[in-house]
Q: What sequence folds into this?
């Protein structure tokens, strides 16, 4: 985790303090359940809670113990025994390290997902507000980067809204899928710990019971979780890339907010660069890269190995922290995005009406002209404007006897109506935002 791209609420989830607190809660809840079942004395479980719930775990001490025993959970349990006293001998009865580690990881991922869902809500709110604001702001649609037909800037943002709505649904599903608990013992058979202990811990920690754990929770759950994060990052990059294109000097239909004292270049005082969108683009690449190692973690040896462990210690914090920062930044970009409707109109008119070529071609086919012939008639006039030989596509069509033999001047003019292209904007908005 790099401080530059981190936000406190998310990083706190992955701090040693939070991790050890979750470990304690798992152990203490398990002790409660064991006490109710008569496996350990009730007074022992009570003492664990009383002495541990407000304790400050000494991270340096735990690290020092781990340096000797070479085992992180044993190091924690040793330190916990120093806090709790003799009753600590009842802690972790029948459990294995993965019961603690895997359940803790899933608590952390679920909490991280909750923050990411709030990030998505903020981004969706910004997209909806700006989409409604520019619902009927005409702009040129582009395919292959080339002018195609008119659209609206609101439709561009509505598309992003729909995409991130799907992202939210996927993350909700991924959160549910990964939020499972395993307290099942050495190879998941419950030989040394009653399944009711697992049920109690799961309920207390806000998780569901893992139906079949070996010694670990199956990593297909985690693979899906990180894959979803990667897809969300890709959607963030798509929107950021669109903004970067729109801010190019030759286009300049929209640009990132530029504060009064901001500087765009150390060398050129005139520069206003899309640095925030570029930043989101770069961070998306990092998040996406973590999906593959998560998938490679699925194939473990037999009931368990720890080849996944080192991977997850890195990708858990880094993927969630990075995506949290990127989504928060993207929401801010959209919220403050400067939009230039006049430039959009100027660019829309730049090709002298060529953007209406399809309507003219279709009108000719409706008058009995074969499609290939209609295409040829329209294209030969369009290319004169494209090549700079003329500037008014409509005028060229009106002067072409092959065209006017089928279409009157008035009929040609009707095909250059911008409103025709926008007549179903309301339909799309209803689909995306509801009534």
A:
């Amino acid at each position: 985790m790099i401080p530059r791209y981190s936000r406190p609420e998310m990083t706190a989830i992955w701090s040693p303090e939070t991790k050890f607190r979750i470990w304690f809660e798992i152990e203490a809840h398990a002790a409660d359940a064991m006490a109710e079942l008569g496996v350990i004395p009730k007074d022992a479980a009570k003492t664990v809670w009383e002495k541990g719930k407000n304790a400050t775990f000494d991270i340096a001490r735990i690290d020092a113990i781990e340096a000797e025993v070479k085992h992180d959970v044993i190091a924690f349990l040793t330190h916990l025994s120093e806090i709790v006293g003799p009753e600590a001998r009842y802690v972790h009865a029948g459990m294995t390290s993965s019961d603690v580690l895997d359940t803790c990881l899933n608590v952390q991922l679920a909490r991280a997902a909750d923050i990411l869902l709030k990030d998505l809500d903020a981004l969706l709110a910004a997209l909806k507000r700006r989409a409604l604001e520019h619902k009927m702001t005409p702009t040129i649609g582009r395919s292959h980067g080339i002018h195609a037909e008119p659209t609206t800037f609101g439709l561009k943002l509505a598309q992003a809204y729909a995409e991130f709505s799907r992202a939210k649904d996927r993350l909700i599903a991924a959160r549910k899928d990964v939020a499972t608990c395993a307290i099942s013992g050495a190879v998941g058979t419950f030989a040394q710990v009653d399944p009711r202990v697992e049920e109690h811990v799961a309920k207390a920690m806000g998780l569901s019971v893992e139906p079949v754990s070996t010694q670990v929770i199956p990593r297909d759950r985690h693979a899906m979780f990180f894959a979803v994060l990667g897809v969300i990052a890709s959607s963030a990059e798509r929107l950021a890339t669109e903004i970067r294109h729109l801010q190019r000097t030759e286009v300049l239909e929209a640009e990132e907010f530029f504060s009064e004292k901001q500087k765009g270049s150390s060398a050129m005082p005139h520069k206003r660069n899309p640095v925030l969108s570029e930043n989101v683009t770069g961070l998306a690449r990092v998040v996406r890269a973590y999906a593959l190692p998560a998938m490679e973690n699925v194939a473990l040896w037999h009931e368990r190995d720890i080849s996944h462990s080192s991977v997850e210690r890195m990708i858990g914090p880094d993927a969630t922290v990075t995506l949290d920062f990127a989504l928060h930044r993207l929401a801010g970009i959209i919220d403050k995005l400067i939009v230039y409707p006049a430039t959009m109109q100027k660019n829309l008119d730049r090709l002298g009406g060529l953007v209406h070529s399809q309507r003219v071609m279709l009108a000719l086919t409706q008058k009995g002209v074969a499609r290939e012939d209609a295409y040829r008639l329209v294209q030969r006039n369009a290319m004169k404007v494209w090549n700079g030989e003329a500037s008014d596509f409509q005028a060229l069509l009106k002067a072409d006897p092959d065209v006017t033999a089928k279409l009157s001047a008035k009929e040609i003019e009707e095909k250059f109506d911008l409103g025709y292209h926008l007549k179903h904007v309301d339909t799309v908005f209803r689909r995306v935002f509801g009534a």
The two ends are 43 Å apart (CA to CA).
